[in-house]
Amino acid sequence: MACAAGEAVDFHGRPAGREGLRPLLTKDGVRSFEVATAREAKGHLVATLKGIATREDAERLNGLELYVAREKLPATEEDEYTTPT
Questions:
Q1: Contact 22, 12 (CB under 8 A)
Q2: Which of 40, 64, 39, 68 is nearest to 52 (CA)?
Q3: Which of 35, 63, 73, 78 holds its CA 20 to 30 A away from the CA of 25?
Q4: What pLDDT score was predicted for residue 2?
Q5: Span 10-60, pLDDT tens digits
Q6: Cα–Cα nearest to 80, from 11, 7, 20, 18
Q7: In whole angstroms, what is the distance from residue 70 CA to residue 85 CA?
Q8: Strand ranges across the sheet with 24-26
Q9: Predicted local distance difference test score (pLDDT) of residue 21
Q10: Where are the domains of the chain?
Q11: How far is the CA of 56 from the CAs of 1, 13, 52, 61, in angstroms?
């Protein structure tokens, strides 16, 4: 499926949209982040998070694993499934 330039996609290449990417939670669920913008670049998702205003703020998040709650994920198709982390 072709997507517009700068459009976030899911693992299957379908348009994800920002609503499919929020809220993002830390593994322990203590912190959450809202995606302001998202785009694909060189096989990775590049996102701007609300409240992260400077490069230094962003660098503090390096290595932080972010998750989407399973109940917030879109429904899977008949031949798809999600796996626990």
A1: no
A2: 64
A3: 78
A4: 40
A5: 555 555 554 555 688 898 989 999 888 888 888 777 888 999 999 999 999
A6: 11
A7: 10
A8: 32-33, 24-26, 66-67
A9: 59
A10: 18-71
A11: 36, 31, 9, 9
Record the pTM.
0.61
CB 37 within 8 A of CB 18: yes
Q: Are 6 and 17 in contact (CB under 8 A)?
A: no
Length of the chain: 85
Tokens representing 85 are 């982390």
Nearest CA to 34 out of 20, 45, 15 is that of: 20
Q: What is the DSSP string of the chain?
A: ----TT--B-TTS-B-TGGGG-SEEETTSS-EE-EEEEEEETTEEEEEETT--SHHHHHTTTT--EE--GGGSPPPPTT------
d(CA 25, CA 2): 29
